[in-house]
Amino acid sequence: MSLTENHGDSAVAAPPGAGVRSFGLSESAARRIKVLLDMEENSDGKFMRVGVEGGGCSGFQYDFGFDDVMKDDDHVFESHGMKVIVDDTSLDLLDGGVLDYVDELLGAYFQVTNPNASSSCGCGTSFSL
């Protein structure tokens, strides 16, 4: 499911010519985030943060973690009752992407389907543009 940014009750219009950026969250990812949050101590107010860092075998790597601090450049996406936060710079690289949780014979992991990536490594945790 693709999500557009959640601005809460305020109607914030995008500037003319600026496209609305989006980031999606599958139902499977939302369920797993909830399970992991339930296992965290002091999980009230925590949310999943998805980011991109330099590194990995393909140039960029995905970063997943829990946080409880919103930053000025954060974008909030909500689906299936779970919030995912993406910082502005990472959203440039993740725009239109979807966070999924895959559970298969070889293991279970979060995976980003990223339409901006021209290639990714075999394990799917890093990518290049």
Report the portion of residues in β strands. Answer: 35-45%
Taken in chain order, the helices and strands follow as EHEEEEHEEEE
| Rg over alpha carbons | 15 Å
Largest sheet: 6 strands, mixed
Percent helix range: 10-25%
Overall description:
The chain is built from two helices and nine strands; from the N terminus they run βαββββαββββ. It is α+β, with helices and mostly antiparallel strands and 129 residues long. The strands form two sheets. Strands 4-5-2-3-9-8 form a six-stranded mixed beta sheet. The chain has a three-stranded mixed beta sheet with strand order 1-6-7. A hairpin with a 2-residue loop joins β4 (74-79) and β5.
Question: How would you summarize this macromolecular structure in one to three sentences?
Answer:
The protein is an alpha+beta fold and 129 residues long. It contains two helices and nine strands.
Question: Which labels suit this protein?
Answer:
three-stranded mixed beta sheet, 2 helices, alpha+beta, disordered N terminus, single chain, 129 residues, 9 strands, globular, six-stranded mixed beta sheet
Give a topology summary.
Elements: E1 23-25, H1 27-39, E2 47-54, E3 60-67, E4 74-79, E5 82-87, H2 88-94, E6 97-104, E7 107-113, E8 119-120, E9 126-128
Parallel strand pairs: 1-6, 2-5
Antiparallel strand pairs: 2-3, 3-9, 4-5, 6-7, 8-9
